[in-house]
Design brief:
The protein is an alpha+beta fold. It is built from 17 helices and twelve strands. It has helices spanning 25-30, 65-68, 82-99, 103-113, 128-143, 175-179, 188-192, 198-206, 210-213, 237-244, 247-251, 257-275, 282-287, 295-299, 360-377, 390-396, 407-420, and strands at 34-36, 41-45, 51-55, 145-148, 224-227, 319-327, 332-340, 346-354, 384-387, 423-426, 441-447, 450-456. The protein is elongated and about 115 Å long. Residues 252-280, 287-305 and 430-457 have low confidence and may be disordered. One of its GO terms (molecular function) is nucleic acid binding.
Amino acid sequence: MIEGNQMPGRLYALQLSDYDIILGMDWLEIYGAMLDCIKKRIRFCHPNGAVFEYQGSPKKHWKSWKEIAQPKECGGLGVLNLYHMQIAFRTKMLWRALTTKSVCARFFKRKHLYNYHHSKAQFPLMLAADRRLWKQAAHLIQGNHRMISMDTNSAGYFWFDVWTGDTPLKAYIPEDIWRDMPDKLCTIQQALNTSESTQLQITLMHCPRHLLAQYLTNNDSKDTWVWCSTSNGIFSTKSVRLLLQPETAQNLKEMSAKHIINKTMLSIRAICISAKFQNIPQPWLNALKQSRKGDADLNQNVMAPRIVRWLTPPQGRLKLNVDGAFNVTTNEAGGGGILRDRKGNMYCAFANHYKHLKSILVAEAFALRDGLLMCYNKGINDVRVETDSLNLLHIVTGKLLHPWDFAFILQEIAVIAKKVQAAITYKDLCPSVGLYTVFLFLCEEKVNGVLVKVLKT
C-alpha cells in the first residue's frame, strides 16, 4: 500500500536483518516506476490510471564515537572522549603513586609494579583491557616527566628516570652494552655512591659529560617530580587529554603560516615606507602588492617601525646587547648579541641556533646566557648587558615566578653574571613606556622548592 493504492507483489522470506523488503525490477515494471535518484523520489503509474509519487526520507549517516569526540576544529563535536578520560584518570592515579609516599601509593607500587620502573611494568593483576590503559598511562608519564633529585641519595632510577638532561640516560647506551649491563634498576644513590661503580663508568664512557656535572637538586627530604606538559609543572588530567588529541588539533592552535606571511609582508612594507626607499626593484613591489604611487593608501593601514636610539655605556665599559627569536610553527629558535664600546665600535658578536625550545622567553634567556658566556671566555669584566625582554628581567630578579624548566638556565645566568660582574638593564622598544635601568646582585633562594641562584635588584 503506497499513497492509498494497493500494489501487491510476490514476496520471498530471506535471512536478512538490515532490510524490511526488497522490490525487484519485475514489480517496478508492472507499476511503471520512474526513479529520480538525485531527489530520492519514485513516480508510479498504476495500471488503474492513478499517477502518484513517493518521496524518500534523507539518509542518515552514522559517525563513529572517535570522530564525534574530536575537537570542533577537526570536524567533531568537541565532546569528551571517554577512552581518553579513562587513560587520563589512570595516569593521574599512577602519577600519585609515583610522586607520593602514602600507604596507598606504596601498596599500589608493590602490587602492580613489583618494584619495577613504571615504564617496564606489565600490570599482571589487571584485566587485559585495563592493562592496555595502564601501560599507555605509564608511557605518557615516561615521556612527560622530569625529576629533581633531593641529592645524591635519591631513590630515583638512575637509567630510566629523567633526572638530568631531557631524556633518560638509557637512551645514550648502545644496545650491546645495555644487554650485558648488571643491575639495570639501580637507583641514583647506588650509582653515585662510589666513583668506581659500573653504572657511573659506563655513563662517563657513553653519555655527555655535562649531564653528570650539571643537574638540579632541591636539598629536600624527597625528590620533586615535574609534569612537563604544564607551565607550572603540576599534573592535570586536562593536559593528558591534550596530549591524546590528534596532532592536527594541536597544530590548529598555533599561528597559521598564512598569518605569519602576511605579518612579514606588512613589516617589509612598513620598513620601505619609513626609510623612503626610492629604488625598490619592481619585482619586490609586485610581491609586496604595492606600486610606487600607493604609499598614501598603505600609510593608512601599516604602522612604520620606530627607530630606537642606542645609549652609550659609561667611559671605560663595554655594552652587550642580546636578543632572542622564536618561530611558533616550526619550534625553531635563535639568539644573538653584539658587544660594543662607547663609540659604537664592535668588539665581538655571536649568533646561535637553538633546538627544542618552547617559547620566546626561553630563547631570550639562552641569548642572555650565551652573551655572558662570550664575555667570560674573552676575559671581559664589568660589562653592561641590555635586553628588551621585561619578563626575563623580572624572572631573574625574582619578581615573577619562573616555569619549572627555567631553573637550570636561570642558575647558569646568575653564576656567569657574577663572574663577569655584569649589570643587566632593560631597554623598552615601545613608544608608550620610557627607558629604565635595573642593577642586579647575586643571592640564593628557593624557587618552587628548588635551590637556585637568582639576581636581585
